[in-house]
Amino acid sequence: MNENKEGDKNIALFEDLLSRIDKKLPFLGMNPRNEASEKKKFFKQKDYNPVFKYRRSASCDKLFHKIDEIELPSGVMSKLLLQRLEKFKRTNAMVQNIGKSEFTYFSKGIFDKPSAELVSKAYEILKAEQQKEENNHITAKKVVKEMKKMLAKLNLKDWKVGFKNMAANAAVITSKKSVYVKKKAKFSEDFLKRILVHEIGTHVFRALNGEKQPYKLFFTGTPNYMGTEEGLAVNIEAMHNCLPTNTLRTYAGRALAVNLALQKGFRDVFNELKKFFTDDVAWKLTLRAKRGLVDTSKSGAYTKDYLYLEGYYKVKKFLEEKGSEGLKQLYYGRIDIEQVPLLNQLEGLVEPQFLPDSESFRELVKQISV
Q1: 280 versus 2: which is more confidently predicted?
Q2: What is the pTM of this model?
Q3: Interstrand relation of 178-182 and 170-173 (parallel, antiparallel or unpaired)
Q4: Beta bridge partners of 295
Q5: Which of 48, 60, 118, 165 is most deeply buried (CB count within 10 A of its CB)?
Q6: Contact 125, 107 (CB under 8 A)
Q7: Residues forming beta bridges with residue 182, ordered by sequence position
């Protein structure tokens, strides 16, 4: 009995340190701080490849030393915790190597890279006729306002919404219980509904349900949860009828951008993507794949972006086979599909309260105003 108590105590201590590491890791640290000026140079000089600058990121080495001293008991939860710690160590190493040749190595160690089959699927999607783009007249301020309104209606008072200078249009930083929207950007009416469903109906909901579990790992994220997380978000967009062809083309473009960036410099990646996208979209896709590099004329990539398309297919297949029960299983927290069978082996798990297919959430989505 004492051994069990000691084991539980060590698991709790380990999870506390993991949470501290999660909060300290600068996940937005890959965003160049001179994007605007480099974009101007890029479009002015035909042969120019951007040279990016980044803010220096603090290391988590002291926390890693502390956590390595904790002895965990044998069992499923301990195995998951150790796997997650390894991912955090790789993320820390990747962030510390921003601008260096090792950056891509660590990125592939965390996210892997797109398969030839996925790249082939991406090209097939990109052959589809592009829909006419809606006018971008919805301001970032309006998006933030609607996000705050939805969070208030869900009674989520401890979640915050704000603006951020970043490559992505929107992002959820779970460790800070914050949703960010790209500062000064403008969006289409279609984007407004889609981003609320994507960011709140998926990322925030999975975090909320994970926070209620007896293990903090369900909140910080289990090993390899990211592919399921992003793939699920795309499927939830489809569920709420806000996954237009152009959005799927964008996810295909992200996968293609990563594949190309691993082999080519910024300009060459951009030129290939221009065959399928406008200059502005091709820039954004290339930037997302090349962030983390300083000299972007070289090959190398931040490889995360292909997970949106890969995860979309993986989760789609899972939901087709498992239905609403499968959807509920994926909302126990920020978990990977591969870990669903382990749910029955963990005691004390709480059934998900926030689900994207609930009548109450569907009603909130209908109420979104432009």
Answers
A1: 280
A2: 0.86
A3: antiparallel
A4: 51
A5: 60
A6: no
A7: 164
Q: How many C-beta atoms surround the C-beta of residue 105 within 10 A?
A: 14
Nearest to 68 by CA among 81, 55, 58: 81
Instruction: Collect all residues with Cβ–Cβ distance below 8 Å to 40 and sequence separation of at least 6.
Output: none
Instruction: For 268-314, write each residue's pLDDT tens digit.
Output: 999 999 999 999 999 999 999 999 999 999 999 999 999 999 999 99
Sheet hosting strand 170-173, strand order edge to edge: 160-164, 178-182, 170-173
C-alpha–C-alpha distance, residues 171 and 189, integer Å: 18
| Two structure tokens written together for 208 | 């909320």
**Amino acid identity, position 22:** D
> Which two tokens mark 283?
């820039």
Tokens matching residue 266:
């910024």
- Cα separation, 312 vs 150, in Å, equals 25
Helix/strand/coil percentages in the chain, nearest 5:
60, 5, 35
Q: Are strands 138-139 and 186-187 parallel, antiparallel or unpaired?
A: antiparallel
User: What is the C-alpha separation between 207 and 194, in angstroms, rounded?
Assistant: 19
